[in-house]
Amino acid sequence: MTTLVLDAQALYGELLRGVQQLRGPESHLVGITSGGAWLAERLHSDLRLPGSAGVISSVMHRDDFAKRGLSGAGQQTQLDFDVNESHIILLDDVLYTGRTIRAVLNELFDYGRPASVKLAVLVDRGGRELPVQADYAAARVALPAHQSLALARDERGKFSFKVEEA
Fold first, then answer.
1. Is this prediction's pTM over 0.85?
2. Cis-peptide, bond into residue 34, ω within 30° of zero
3. CA dihedral 89, 159, 151, 90 (to 10 degrees)
4. Taken in order 41, 70, 162, 123, is the CA torsion positive or negative?
5. Alpha-carbon distance 15 to 133, whole Å?
6. How far apart are CA 73 and CA 95, in angstroms?
């Protein structure tokens, strides 16, 4: 059995460089709860941007809402800017099937019509079920469908990954 070892802190450094390339002067960082929100918060701070990073939840627009309900609904959408005509960099920890991104885009359009949306992720693990692609991925890895990969954050803000059996 092969053990996957990913250095989340090192990948964060790669993500920071990628977001700097994607970012324009009027871009807003928006993180998907929860791992993407952690990334957006830290990126916002490290890039010394004014205000705060946005947070967006996929809960209300998921296609499996009937099955999952409000699980994972700890953090709700908070966008402290006018979404209309905004340039948004959407951040997530792991891109897999594309279903979370679809749900988040639906949620985002409930708030207005952005000029552009770019997607930056820490890890793209393939396995797409929808035609969604990241504009920037710090790493690409392959995992079996029975495993999940999630970002964790300790009390000091240090990132790590958890691989779990689904």
1. yes
2. yes
3. 0
4. negative
5. 16
6. 19
